[in-house]
Amino acid sequence: MNAKITLLPGDGIGPEVVAEGRRVLEAVGQKRGHTFEFAEHLIGGCSIDQHGTALTEEALAACKASDAVLLGAVGAPKYDDPANKVRPEQGILALRKGLGVFANLRPVKVHPALADASPLKPEKLKGVDVLVLRELTGGLYFGYKSREEIDGHVKVVDALEYHDYEIRRIVELAFRLARGRRQKVTSVDKANILDTSRLWRQIAMEVGAANPEVALDHMLVDTAAMQLVANPARFDVLVTENMFGDILTDEAAVLVGSMGMLPSASLGGDGPGLYEPIHGSAPDIAGQGLANPVGTILSVAMLFRHSLKLEAEANAVEAAVNQTIRDGGRTRDLGGALTTRQMADEIIKRMP
Predict the structure, then answer these.
(1) 349 is catalytic
(2) Contact at 8 Å (CB) between 298 and 256?
(3) Long-range contacts: 341-346, Cβ < 8 Å, 24+?
(4) Is position 147 within any domain?
(5) What percentage of the chain's residues is helix, strand, coil (to nearest 5)?
(6) Among 49, 129, 158, 250, the one annotated catalytic
(7) From 80, 116, 222, 284, active-site residue
(8) Element (H, E) at 301
(9) Is 49 marked active-site?
C-alpha cells in the first residue's frame, strides 16, 4: 500500500510523541511492504507564533488531501489567558470541522499488568473494555456565542445546539460498533434538564428499536461519571454528546493509570480520519524525553484499522504494545524509567 499521512506535531510534547508514531509507521511499512509519504504542518500555538492563526488554510488542505492525519497536542502557557482572541485549541476545532469528522472513538481497556498504576482497586478493573463515542461537531463548542456588556456587567452566551441528523449518525455508528463487541450501548445524556438531551434520548430510542439485537440503556451524565469509577466493567459502548464525552473520557483515563496510554480516532464520511492521543501538550515535561508515546502509537494502530483498512498491521502494533507492557516496559508516568524514544524502541522491537 502507498498512503499519504499528514503529521501535525503541535505544541509541547506533541513533536516528541508524533516522531515515535512516525517511526512505528515506517517500521510497519518496512516489515509489511507499505510505503508512506509524510507531510508535516503546524497547528496550535506554534502555528499562531509563525502564521497568526492556529491552523492555516494550507495545513488544512494538506490534511484533506491525505489518507490520514496524525496529531500530537496543542496548547502553550502563554495562550492560557482567557482574554486571548486566538487560541491553540481553535486549530483543533477548525480541523475537525474542515475534515468533517463527527465521531471521536476512544477505547479504554485496562492492561492487567498495569492494574497497580490505577487509583482504583484491581477488582474494580477486571474486564474493563469500554469504547466511548463522543460527538465532535455539535454542542456547546460549536453553538451560537455572544458577549455583551449590560449595565456595567458582562453577559456571555454559549449555546448548546444539536441537529437531529448529528445525533442520529453517531448513535447509529455506536450500534454498528457494538455488534462487533458485547452488543450493548449506553447512551449518556441529561434528559431530565436539557431539551437537546431529550432529543438525543428520543433518537437513541428510535435507533435502538431498529436494532433490537443490541441492548440499549440510558444514563444521566452525572450517574455515568459515578459509574465509570464505581463499576466501569458494566459499560461496553458508551455514546454521548460533545462536552459530556470530553469530560467522561478524561475521567476514564484514570482507569488505565495514565492519560499517556489512551489513543483516539476521529472519523467522518469518506475523508481522512484524524488520530491523536487524548493527552494534552504537557509543556512542563516537553523536550525532556519523559512523555509516554503509547497513546500515539496505539492511535497509529487505529489509523491502520480505520483509515488504511490494514487490520493485521493494527493488530501487530497492539500486540507489540501489550508485550512490551507485559515485559515491564514503563515510562515515568507508569513508575518506570524508559524515555519516550526507549519505550518506542521496545515496542518496535517486539512487532511481529
Answers:
(1) no
(2) no
(3) 341/20, 341/289, 343/20, 343/292, 343/293, 343/294, 344/20, 344/23, 344/24, 344/293, 344/297
(4) yes
(5) 45, 20, 35
(6) 250
(7) 222
(8) helix 294-306
(9) no
Is 129 considered catalytic here?
no
Q: Read off the pTM.
A: 0.91
Catalytic status, residue 151? no
What is the mean predicted confidence (pLDDT) over 273-297? 96
pLDDT at 338 over 90: yes
The catalytic residue among 11, 189, 190, 275 is 190
Cα distance between residue 203 and residue 69, in whole Å? 31
> Do residue 135 and residue 252 come from a single domain?
yes
Expressed as residue numbers, the domain containing 182 is: 119-256
Catalytic residue of the set 49, 129, 158, 246:
246
Give the pairing type, strands 103-109 and 265-267. antiparallel
- Does residue 187 sit in the same domain as residue 249? yes
Q: How far is CA 75 from CA 78, 91, 281, in A?
A: 9, 10, 6
Amino acid at 17: V
Q: Which residues contact 81 (CB under 8 A, 6 or more apart)?
A: none
pLDDT, tens only, 163-207? 999 999 999 999 999 999 999 999 999 999 999 999 999 999 999
**345 catalytic residue (yes or no):** no
Catalytic residue among 11, 79, 124, 141, which?
141
Domain contains 174: yes
Cell of 293: 508515546
